Amino acid sequence: MTETVMDASAKLRFGLKKLKVSKGAKNATYPSRREVIAMMAITGIYLMFEVAFAARLLDVVGSTTDLDTIEQIERAGRIISGIALTLVVWTAAVLPWQRRIPLDAPFRRTKSLATLALSAAACCIVSFVVQETILDRISQGSSPAQRQAASTLTLVSASVQNERAVLDGIDFEAVDRGSPEAKTFLALLPALALSVDRLEERTADAIDQLLERQAQRALGPPGEMFTEAYYPTMNALKAAYNDAYLDAAARHREAIAWIPDEQRRLYREYRNGLGRWTPTTLPRSRHDRVRSKLRAEGVPVPYNWRLTDKQGFFDAVEREIRQRADPPYNQAMQQAFGHALPDDLRPSTFFAAAGVQARWHEELGMPASIALAPDLSPESFKTQVYDAWVRQIVAERKPLYLAGVEQFKEDGAHYADGIEAIRVAYVPLVAFGFSILGALVHSFKTLNFAAQATVGSGTARRRWSGKVLKALLAAIVIYTGVGMAREENPVTQSVLFRDLEATTTEVAGPIYAAIIRSIIQLQAHLYPAAEAIRRHLLLGITYDFDPETETPAFETLASTDDLSTSSSLKDEAQGRMMPALLHGLAEDVRTDNPGQ
Question: Is the pLDDT of residue 2 over 50?
Fold first, then answer.
């Protein structure tokens, strides 16, 4: 009887313990306040970097069409998108799984940290691959006509960004080119205008002007190139002529000047050494002995040298002397000029020497076909050098923009150029889309974590209140985002944008056109706050951590803004008449689409 009571008591205690464990396991499915606060902090910190990246992204893609520059910032965006995906996966899957691990499980902390790290790495890889796949599908799936149009549009966009051209249908007197909406529009212009008919006809007359001004911008003003590049390099070459060339050339000339005397002296000694014999009477059995003796005495005649070959003897003497005199001289020339030079150059012929010209062109980064001369005036330099360089750049690049559609096919000469242009056109759109989506989603998540930390999840009522508050916050974020995306600005009110939008809607569909409009209108609201966070809270971070580029990781480390346009360039641009591009687009669209 006693044993029965004891067994029943043990079973009761075991059942109560099991009930407690079960109850604890149920409570563990909800995050603790500590976990919620930690995730709120992590998500909030991420959100600051996300919105700051959105500002930097706009600054970059709104001011350049260089694919390397755009892809560098876009790769940073892929990492940020990977972190965004990581936070979602942690919240939805990893952390709930970790809460179900018993507290006394072996290696519980190690498993948790390893899972967090592996999931983060996997999410970053997935983000990178997904975005690259999207861009590859777009670029590889483009038509030859789209690749041709994209090549032209990247040139148009770059010219308008740099104030080298204007667009028909948008008043840049009223629209600030530096405004968020204008920069977004110019960044998305290639993607938006791909649907325009007869694009090559609308821009053909302006191609020469656009390329010329793009080359001028790349080279800088002629006066600046004269004072900061041409003149210093000319003076450096003059100094090298006086300090290095003259002395080395004099020593070299002195070393080889006695070659004729040495040739005659050694030949006389050779003849005297034959004794009563002459080169023609000496028995052939002794010829090898004579040749060996001459080589031993420093006259390197060939093994098959004929004893009667006086010129061959003289050549061997000269070769031996030059083998001693030429290497030090050539080494001095290589160190000073990077090329071998003759030793008899006068000041008047020095700069025309091929080696000096090659070195000068290398210093200036200039094509070898442009002749350089010393002591040019600024006016002569502009006419003979600067303008010639601009013309050569235009001549090299112009065939791309005048090429027919067939040259943009897979086996065409400009297929790779077209693919690159398509990426330039769509990388900003894809990057903007992921960046804005990440900012909105994690704004909601940060607010939601704050609400969970305030309300808690200890009781069913608190959990119900948290769900209601979560739905309310989601509605607020969506309403705010939609409201900002629907608010028009001077760019989306312009005739050009409306006509491009109408064409895009007809060709690519209303969803695609609505996405571009929404991005342009959202940026007008998001950019000011995002830029303030980037500059003030994050020390001007530039998201450029590539050591091979000149852009520092933080703007506070730089002395100048790498994307700024010099005042002299702006003055030069404003002093010229800029070509109007996409001329007549509004009329054409209205004719083709009378209902618009």
Answer: no
